[in-house]
Amino acid sequence: MKTIISLLALLLLNTISYTQTGKIDINNIDATINPSNVMFQTLVPDTNVYFKTLKRTNQTTIFSSAVWITGLRSVDSNLQGSYQSYIFGSNFNNTFSTGPLSCVAGSGTGGKKDFGAATISSSQETLWNKVFCANKWDIELFVNWYLCTQDPFCDTSISFPSYTIPSSILDWPAHGDLSESQDHNLAPFVDIDSDGNYNPNNGDHPCIKGDQYCWFVINDKGLSLDSRMGIEIHVEVYSFDKDSLNPLSNTLFIGRDIINRSTVTYNEFTVGQFTDFDLGCADDDYIGSMPILNSYYGYNADPIDDNCYGGVSQYGTNPPAQSVTFLNKTMAKSMFYDNSVGVQSAPNNLMEAHNYLNGKWNDGVPLHYGGNGYPAPIGTSISGVVYNHIYPFSTPIGISPWTEFTAGNPAGDRRMLGSIAPTTLAPGDVIELDLAYVFSRSDSGNLKSVDQLYRDIQTVQSFYNDSISSTCQAFVLSVPEENLIAAKVLPNPSTNYFTIETEGKSLRIDITAIDGKLITSELELNQSARIDATNWSDGLYLLKLYDERGNSKVWRIIKN
Q: Residue 170 — φ and ψ, nearest 5°?
């Protein structure tokens, strides 16, 4: 059971609320996104419905997940930072606030802008207490509408009847408030006219990854904590719409830009990702690491996930495995702590959290290979070998396998932490940390799910390396006249049929519902075609034409 300090939890419940949340549910994962450092956590004690591994179910694998940061002030070597387990846990008060910090231009070396007090007002915290989301299909439609407005041969009243720019594009938080000394550039966007300012009327639009994308900004300075550092974090969460058998359909991506807005340089600055695994029932789990894949993971300790409490849904037979994978950084350390007391329990202060981030137990003793990872006589490790990763999936040559099975551990509630190597973080420096939450399930047992996870992580990593760009590329708006697709779609709206008339070019046509579901696809279209819509549900559809040169044009068509 997750323990709660009842009075303090009630006080927190009365002070935390989200003015707007986001939803990522384009694939099998169904995740509600809050503007908080603690991901997948509800505001209701002992409930977790925000990271579902299959839509329209209550089956979940993660109770909460959060970034931990610690570092030593270069001026006095004092330790500062922030760590969280879950909102209602013992560390709930060591948390982040919402909004961007001030960053007044200074005289520091390198010409960086991020020098100053790194402050934020309560009104700005309230203003930024929300999640901003955009969808790929909305942006594609907007781009094609804007292209039409720039094309003398395109009639928007015909091609895009009654189109209005959606609020997800109009209200995109591209810029901070300069009167509050916030950074001018915040949420990423495509700057069509290259003027440095976000203006959708000029074709500018959000720059997103994936098919669904959410963005928000948090900081560690808004709350009155002695350990605050002046760190601002831009968070992006996204997923891809893929075939259900593709590992990407069971993956959620989270990217963070961790920015030092203060005047202080931090030595031994360490970033880690904490995760409280609850694979269905929380009390029968094991954990492990895959150092070669920069991943840590949770899985069921036996072939059947059962005996849940608190309304949580069990997985039953063939329970899954769930990873947290570092995509663009090496996972230098991986540790766990248990829901108990002692040297392997949850950190009670910042130094203990710093120890965990650096591969040590909360008393500063390094992780040792074998047993429960703590050397005898207090622990059961007798190897004498200091090691960086707990329960590695692949065993080093010449060393016997080390898993929770070989250690003889009783199953239980598991929390893990993976971290990158310490670094120096000067004012204005940015650490980019990209993660993937990969869910895998075999039909041959709990351990086979771990084997499947090992394969799926590699597929996701390859996709990230090859297909996910870290920068925005503007769409080319100057299309040569001879390459434009000239066509008409009549009548629109229609109750039964749509007629498409072209100039005789060989074209391809796709029609999708507004939710992305493919309605019809024709490989070749010449001069005219009649589309039967009598069996369609009333509503809005997207009709897209392609030519052999890669040009395309989109119409909004209405069936009524």
A: -65, -40
Quote the distance between the C-alpha of residue 341 and its chain's center. 32
Q: In which band, very low, low, confident or very high, does the pLDDT at 13 lie, cut at 50, 70 and 90? A: very low
Please write the tens of the pLDDT for every residue from 278-335.
999 989 999 999 999 999 999 999 999 988 876 678 999 999 999 999 999 999 999 9
A 10 A CB-CB count for 504 gives 10
In which region does residue 301 sit, left (phi positive, over 0), alpha (psi from -120 to 50) or beta (all else)? alpha
Q: Does 300 or 542 have the greater pLDDT score? A: 300
Q: How far is CA 409 from CA 214, 271, 317, 373, in A?
A: 39, 28, 21, 11
pLDDT confidence of residue 453 = 97
Rounded-to-integer distance, Cα 233 and Cα 237, Å? 13
How many Å apart are CA 212 and CA 24, to the nearest integer?
6
- pLDDT tens-digit series, residues 231-241: 999 999 999 99
Pairing of strands 30-33, 51-52: antiparallel
Q: Indicate left, alpha or beta for 199 from its phi (over 0: left) and psi (-120 to 50: alpha).
A: beta
Q: Half-sphere exposure of 110 toward its Cβ, with a 13 Å CA cutoff?
A: 8
From 290, 300, 307, select the one nearest 442 (Cα to Cα). Answer: 300
Residues in the chain: 560
Range 484-559 classified under CATH 1.25.60.10? no
The amino acid sitting at 174 is: A
Mean pLDDT value across the chain? 85
Does pLDDT of 468 surpass 70? yes
Inter-CA distances, 214 with 246, 383, 525, Å = 22, 46, 37
C-alpha to C-alpha distance for 186 and 215, rounded to whole angstroms = 10
* pLDDT tens-digit map of 57-89: 788 999 889 999 999 999 999 999 998 876 544
Cα 374 to Cα 126: distance, rounded to the nearest angstrom: 44
CA 392 – CA 314 distance, rounded (Å): 26
Q: Which segments of 94-151 are extended strands (E)?
A: 97-98, 132-135
Decide which of 439 and 539 is more confident: 439
Contact between residue 294 and residue 329 where contact means Cβ atoms under 8 Å apart: yes
Domain ranges of the chain: 6-52+64-125+215-467, 484-559
Structure tokens belonging to residue 292: 């070669």
